[in-house]
Specification:
alpha/beta; 6-stranded parallel β-sheet
């Protein structure tokens, strides 16, 4: 592509302003700092960029030395999707656990404490919460990231989360508009489709977004999904009908619209990221999220030049790009003023709020006849392939917490048709704790439990995904998520701690 941008003109600055790129490493590379000086206004952080709170704080200080109002964004949902604690597991249960408790004040407190920790490290935009109604039990990418399958429950907890997070001075980015819950396809891999009728969409998918808008969410993230009832031709991220007519017009939203990651196959594999980014801005998006996979200066240059070229060719109205850039700058001003006013320090909910929430979320079946373990068990983790949003870097399960409570606990990971037999062979005579994740979505996992329970009916079962299958085992624990605190809450019951 011919490069029209020279790094100094207003058009080029606006093109850079609407980008939210990522990078590799734990310090900002020179190219990123240079782009901040040229107009880039946002940076996205991922688990690869974070090793500790002190390191993260140093990184955000480095970014703000180049641009003091930079938006530093992160995908920190708590629960299964954590970047702050990618190496250890989250100190907070995720949305599904909070929905299981159904205490909106608890949700607000958890979101505030998570936001307080982000703000303390210099992060001021969180790509959360998920407002998706997980109405499809086969959904491979939302699941425990959703507050639940009930629209009204999801709406009230979405609003509470937005309120709590933003009371800590961190902008919420409610996602994935117009709702990713009724899909059986992961948009990281392909383009999902929702064939619900308009009335269903209005009553089910859109209600949590209305609640988020009423709560003052500063940003909304679009979904890479095709919803023919709303637009038969373009996925939501690229649809003026969905972003401009529905979100802006019908729902009255005037904040920042951010795209989901443009390198996800739903867009990259159909339109390409450069063409897709031009179409997204033209449709009404204000910020282009990219960098989960493509995280280099060449990507930023390519997107910048694609936007500049589209304006100069007349395909993208210059006023639309300017409007998008202005919304980015407006959010940057809000976060900067919020930080100066000390909003993030107004309230302290306590560092144990995540564990308390995880304990309250726990559903225990069979406790009346259960005697807590005193001898170390064997933990058999039946592990599905992790979805990309969660990633496979973050540890999960109950083994680490049981080892702390019952020294000598051993563990192994199993998958596939022979998983149950393999676990039995390794466990020997030790009591077995079987840990599953979304058993109802994985027939091999069901067969593994069948095998275990036929031979060892005293097996304890811990479900750390959506508890869609009937409880079974000598003791059944549903944690509603696989965060570290969820594992601790389950381990405390098993060991009688």
């Amino acid at each position: 592509m011919t490069t029209y941008a020279d790094g100094t003109d207003t058009l080029t600055r606006d093109a850079l302003t609407v980008l939210q790129p990522g990078f590799t490493g734990t310090t900002a590379p020179d190219w990123l700092l240079r782009r901040l000086g040229e107009g880039l206004a946002s940076v996205g952080l991922f688990g690869r960029n974070i090793t500790s709170p002190d390191q993260l704080s140093a990184l955000t200080v480095q970014l703000r030395a180049e641009r003091d109002d930079v938006l530093v964004a992160i995908d920190e949902e708590g629960g299964d999707v954590t970047r702050l604690e990618v190496g250890t597991g989250s100190s907070f249960p995720g949305n599904h656990a909070l929905g299981a408790v159904d205490d909106v004040e608890l949700t607000r407190q958890v979101a505030h404490e998570l936001g307080r920790r982000l703000a303390a490290c210099g992060v001021n935009l969180n790509w959360a919460p998920s407002a998706d109604v997980n109405s499809n039990p086969a959904n491979p990418v939302i699941g425990v990231r959703s507050f639940g399958a009930d629209t009204h429950l999801v709406a009230r907890h979405t609003a509470a989360y937005v309120t709590g997070l933003q009371s800590a001075g961190v902008a919420a980015c409610t996602k994935h508009f117009p709702g990713h819950g009724d899909t059986a396809v992961d948009s990281h891999h392909a383009l999902p489709r929702i064939d619900a009728e308009p009335e269903v969409l209005q009553e089910r998918e859109l209600a949590p977004f209305r609640a988020a808008i009423a709560a003052g969410t500063r940003a909304v993230m679009s979904a890479h999904i095709l919803v023919p009832a709303l637009d038969p031709n373009r996925p939501a991220t690229l649809s003026a009908r969905i972003l401009t007519e529905l979100l802006r017009g019908d729902l009255g939203y005037d904040g920042l619209i951010v795209t989901d990651g443009m390198e996800m196959r739903a867009i990259a594999g159909t339109y390409g990221i450069e063409r897709g980014s031009v179409l997204a801005i033209a449709a009404g998006a204000d910020a282009i999220c990219v960098g989960g996979g493509l995280a280099d200066d060449a990507t930023v240059r390519g997107l910048r030049d694609a936007l500049v070229t589209a304006v100069r060719s007349g395909e993208l109205p210059e006023e639309r790009l300017f409007e998008a850039a202005e919304r980015v700058r407006a959010l940057a001003r809000w976060t900067a003023s919020t930080a100066r006013s000390g909003t993030s320090g107004r309230e302290t909910t306590g560092s144990d709020i995540g564990l308390l929430a995880a304990r309250r979320a726990l559903t225990v079946t069979g406790a009346a006849d259960f005697t807590p373990l005193t001898a170390p068990p064997y933990v058999a983790a039946f592990t599905p392939v992790a979805n990309i949003a969660v990633g496979d870097e973050t540890p999960w399960g109950v083994a680490a917490e049981l080892l702390r409570l019952l020294p000598g606990t051993e563990t192994g990971t199993f998958a596939g048709d022979e998983a149950g037999k393999a676990a039995l062979a390794v466990a020997g005579e030790r009591r077995i704790v079987a840990v599953v994740r979304d058993e109802h979505r994985h027939p091999w996992m069901t067969r593994a439990l069948d095998t275990l329970l036929a031979r060892r009916p005293d097996t304890i079962v811990v479900e750390m995904g959506v508890p869609g299958a009937a409880p079974r085992g000598a003791l059944h624990l549903a944690t509603y998520g696989a965060a570290r605190v969820c594992g601790r809450a389950a381990a405390e019951v098993i060991a009688g701690a």
